[in-house]
Every structure is written in structure tokens, then in C-alpha cells.
């Protein structure tokens, strides 16, 4: 599979040249913070803040600010003096401005061409003062706004440090306790927003959270801005964060890795139960696995919250089912996990039509989850080219390839991803090259009405199930040691790809692909 190897090398090149490197400049967090920028008042600042920007789209997702207080201060006639003397508010002001202006067309996938990036750099110039001064709510809010901005594609290297500092500061301020000396509602709002951000990032990076769930005593305050109809997004995101904490501790921590397979599978079942209870607690219009109705996405906030809800759920499903495939020796359970992975990949790809291919979309939604779905579906097609629904699988591969081609086009080639269509082309060519089933075999797998049976067994890809791999199976590739094949070991969101590296420059994605493709 020389073509696949070439695609893997191209992915490696893209990650290194686009996401891990910046030409002609050092983009480390603290080097950016030292850049001297002149404080200026953007003539369109008020419109960026007020028009379909930060408070209309992002504030319902991350409700850690008092909108009235912030806007009153942002429109003061002596604003320039305030920005020059209040470092925390200066950092917060420019971070919010950077976030808001992205929704008004003032952003780009290329930092040098991005007005939002320049505003964010101005916010970062106050970072050293914020970190060195006494912890306060205003300092914490500035860090939180910067961390939110850092979730987009061209800030990928900055989010870990900013979230770590925000987590440290919120605990130092003791906002996780039930009693605080300041505005308790705003303090607790800020804590839960950081909790949501930090728990999700820690799970994705396979690292332990700095916020211990057993030490939290503060209530979740009333946040009408985060309520869409019957859906309270803040409460739902907090509940999901708790599930991530349980999943990491029982399945992906160091101590969990030493547990026997039976214990791991029992923990998987427990997390599945928690996840299903969380899913069922969500109103139908936003509930994962239910059809997402475009007419329900009445504004930017509702669409962003819907996509996060669905992709958060599918992210954990992918992690749980992949772990089940590695731990289970039960053929039926492995088949069910394989089918669940396949269905999840299909759902993820179907949702790509709702994704805004814009710089403000978090890379988790824009690329990581769709790329995981592409790999899962490609793997299934290569191993099961005679599956009854193979035409549908190939169509979905074309759709997700089109999503990445659109990303390539929207970024003017800054994020080279159109080459991923090669996976779709190769899958289609391979399926066409596989001999068709004899008529007798086809009849045995289909009912008399000619429709494919809904309960056709899917062969497990677990290496221990050697009996399923017939020597004359046309889906098996020559020269491949299936006994050592790590099934579905692609670079999915739960892959621990940061382990053992001191910097992102050392990352080599080729280590995360099964030997069948290398």
C-alpha cells in the first residue's frame, strides 16, 4: 500500500509545517507575550463586541463574564487610560475583541493576515503581569478568554499553558468552594467554565486533571444565557466533564492500565451507562444519535452548542469502543464495538455539513473528530469490501474528503488537507478490485426479498480472533502479519500521542498507524 504510506507522510508533513512550526518566528507563548504592541482603540471595537460576535455566539457557551459590566467599561471615554493601567482588563478586553471580530470576517487561517491574531498578541503582552500579580477574578477572566481563543487552529500550541495557568489560579482563589468573598455567582460561573475547558482538554490529551472532583463544593449558578429552550448547556457541559473525569480515572490513567481486562470492561460498561444517562437528559433537539434538524439551529450559539454536544458524545464513544476492541476476547462484544465505531464514524461525517469552515471553529471540531471518522471508515472498508452497505461507506468517505478539500480551499492552502481525498479514491479502487461473492454466498446472507439482512455479523478485527481470518479471504492483504496487527490503531482523539515527547516538534504521526499501511 505505497499510496497509503505516501498519504501518511503527507499528513506528517502538514502537521509539521502547519501546526508545529511557524516560519521565520518563534511563537512560544512567552515570546509572544514579550512582543511590544501599541495600545490602540479599534474604531469598530464596539461593533465587534456587540454585533453577532462574542456575546451572541461565545458567551452562551462560556458564560464567565458580566456582559453589562464589561460593555460599560469598554465604552468609557477614558478607555485608553484604563487599558494602560489595568493589565488584567487590558488582556481581557483584547482577548474578547479578538474572539468577537472573528465572527465579523476579521480573521484568517494565516496569523500574519489575521486582525484577530494581532489583537490576541496585544492581549498576550499583558500575560506576564497577570501571572506575576496577585490572583484575582479579573486576572482569571483574562486567562480564560485567552484560553478560549487558543482552541482555534493557529493557536494550537498555546492552549495547554493557558488552561494550566487558569486551572492553577481558579484553585488558588478557592472558587471551587461554596463560599467566596467576591461576587459568588460570577466566581462560580468562571470556575465551571474553566472546569469544562480543562476536563475536556485533559481527557483529549490523556493527562490527569488539575481539578479534583471530590474537592468541589460550589453550586452551578443560574445562567439564563446558556439555556436554549429546554437545554441548559452549562449544566450539561459540567455533567459531561464529570463523566470524562470518571472515564480517565477508571480507563486511561496509569493505575487503570494495570487492571485486568475484565475490570477494564466493567469500567467501560459503567462509563457507557453514565454517558447514556447524560445523553437521555438532553432535549431531543440537541440529543446525540437523534437527527439534527437544521431548522432548530436558529443562530450561531445554537449551532455551536449542538455540534459540541454531538461531537463530545461521539468522542467518548470512539474512545470506549476502541478500548473494548483491545480488551475484549468475546467475539460478539467485539463485533458490537466494531459496529458502534462504524455507526459513530458515519454520524460524525454526516454532521460535517454543519461545521463552519472558519478560523474560529475549534480544531477539535474542524479536523480531529472528522479525521478520526475518516480513518475508522477507511479501515472498515479495506477490511470489509463486500459489506452490504459498502456503497454508502464509500459515499461517506467522499463526503468527509470533501470537507477537508473545503478546508484546504478556505485556508488558501495554508492547511493542506485536500490530499486526504486519496483515502476515498484508494478505498473505491480497492473495493472494485475485490472479486464479487458467488451467487450462493450472496443468497445465504440476504433474505428472500433481496434486501440485506440487518443483523449480518461483522468480523472482529481483534488480533486474537485468528479463526475469523480464512486463508482465502480476498479482503486479506498479502505480506501482512495479522497476528501483530493493532486494529483501528489510528490517530483518534483518545490516542496518547503526546506521551514521551518534550515538544510538539518531536511528534511523528506515522507511529500511530497500523503496520498494514507502513
Q: Care to describe what's here?
A:
- The structure is a single chain.
- With about 525 residues, the chain is an all-alpha fold.
- It has three domains: about 25 residues, no CATH class; about 190 residues, no CATH class; about 200 residues, no CATH class.
- Helix content is about 55%, strand content about 0%.
- The protein has 21 helices and two strands.
- A two-stranded antiparallel sheet has the order 1-2.
- α13 runs parallel beside α16 and α17 crosses α18.
- The radius of gyration is 24 Å and the shape is globular.
- Pfam families: Fungal_trans.
- This is Xylanolytic transcriptional activator regulatory domain-containing protein.
- InterPro entries: AtrR-like, XnlR_reg_dom.
- Keywords: Membrane, Nucleus, Transmembrane, Transmembrane helix.
- GO terms for molecular function: DNA binding; DNA-binding transcription factor activity; zinc ion binding.
Relevant terms:
DNA-binding transcription factor activity; globular; mainly alpha; zinc ion binding; about 525 residues; two-stranded antiparallel ribbon; about 55% helix; 2 strands; 3 domains; transmembrane
